[in-house]
Amino acid sequence: MNGEISKSLSAENAKELLNSVDAFLFDCDGVIWKGEKLIDGVPQTLDLLRSHGKKLVFVTNNSTKSRKQYAKKFHSLGIPVNEDEIFSSSFAAAMYLKVNDFPREKKVYVIGEEGILEELEQAGFTALGGPADGKKNIELKSDCLFEHDKNVGAVIVGLDQYINFYKLQYGTLCIRENPGCLFIATNRDAVGHLTDLQEWPGAGCMVAAICGTTQKEPITVGKPSTFLMDFLLQK
Amino acid sequence: MNGEISKSLSAENAKELLNSVDAFLFDCDGVIWKGEKLIDGVPQTLDLLRSHGKKLVFVTNNSTKSRKQYAKKFHSLGIPVNEDEIFSSSFAAAMYLKVNDFPREKKVYVIGEEGILEELEQAGFTALGGPADGKKNIELKSDCLFEHDKNVGAVIVGLDQYINFYKLQYGTLCIRENPGCLFIATNRDAVGHLTDLQEWPGAGCMVAAICGTTQKEPITVGKPSTFLMDFLLQK
């Protein structure tokens, strides 16, 4: 899908490449679409690959949507893609917990958006935080005590447009005070094209904030991570 | 002021120490006060030092207040302290700009609270952001364009209980897009005792968030920094 590589491929080389590869992994932002617009040539390329029986996987670090929501986006752009062909970092976070036998009775605190909550729920985990904590304010009084759920066993941090002091304190307390609590980053992208015209702070911003308070480093599950590649290879 | 050191000082040693030192630097949180309560023995110790003609400096990394506001806090606790005996990280940030001849026609964007704005104003600089941007929301539409002031020449990041996506984007755009824009951290404390009973995310949290989006490291002006020590030594 990269312009420069495409140019240097002769018709013969392209055929050879096609024959030698069983599965194609695609990034989404900037490869399939830019904002809400489909990139030229994408539908034809995908049709061609499908007609040759190739397996397609669409990978995205943007954790704000679930696979279901991404499938809807693909359909709205006129591309038929199944949910199980999509690998979003929101899904990756839920799969990390599943693969590592995260106890079902434990809870997960989310600094992030709807996509992570949906994937956690679909994988059978109990999630707290996310959009529900987006408008919570704290009034700091000298004798106030901020309580957190001692049963939270993992904090997942992704892109969160509604980041606030409440969520930062909640996530920090879980990681610092709940024994063995995991700290999972959907990804660490510094910025991302949330709109057509410019970049915005990415998950790397929120993840760094929690690194700053906890002085801990997260497990990263999106691109580039060994978890993602291992998981896709086993699929 | 440290309990262990005090115990190991004999009366004679203490006298020797007192005679050999002209100025005493005190931390505030946990040394002078804890939350809103004065620590035992503080007024007597300070009186003793003053009666021997010692210079006293009160240093604090908490940037939410200005020196003026700290002087008020000292007075309310029954300790007479002058504004010019206080060295807060909010003041340190303004002094960094002054010492480095930051152009008066340039503006400063603040991720932080009232204290930084007050110190900037008192030092004759034009500040944007801070509490005024605490309730600003962004509605992300594909064609929206977030505008920032191209005349911002420095971004100061301190503790901000009202941190939000708006401020993170504003600060990031200034640092990434305004040529030569400075990135100044009041301090990088991971957490701080904002209330009596527990710790809360410190300036290190907000600073790390901006490091995460800009992929740049700040100039730190509070403890521990060479700027602070050099400035105090010259005073």
From TrEMBL, chains A, B:
Gene3D superfamilies: HAD superfamily/HAD-like (3.40.50.1000)
SUPFAM superfamilies: HAD-like
Keyword set, alphabetical order: Hydrolase
Keyword Hydrolase: yes
InterPro entries found in the cross-reference section: HAD-like_sf (IPR036412), HAD-SF_hydro_IIA (IPR006357), HAD_sf (IPR023214), PGP_euk (IPR006349)
Keyword Hydrolase tagged: yes
Pfam families recorded: Hydrolase_6 (PF13344)
Top-rank taxon, per record: Eukaryota
PANTHER family: 4-NITROPHENYLPHOSPHATASE-RELATED, PHOSPHOGLYCOLATE PHOSPHATASE 2
Name the record gives this protein: Phosphoglycolate phosphatase
Species in which this protein is naturally found: Solanum tuberosum
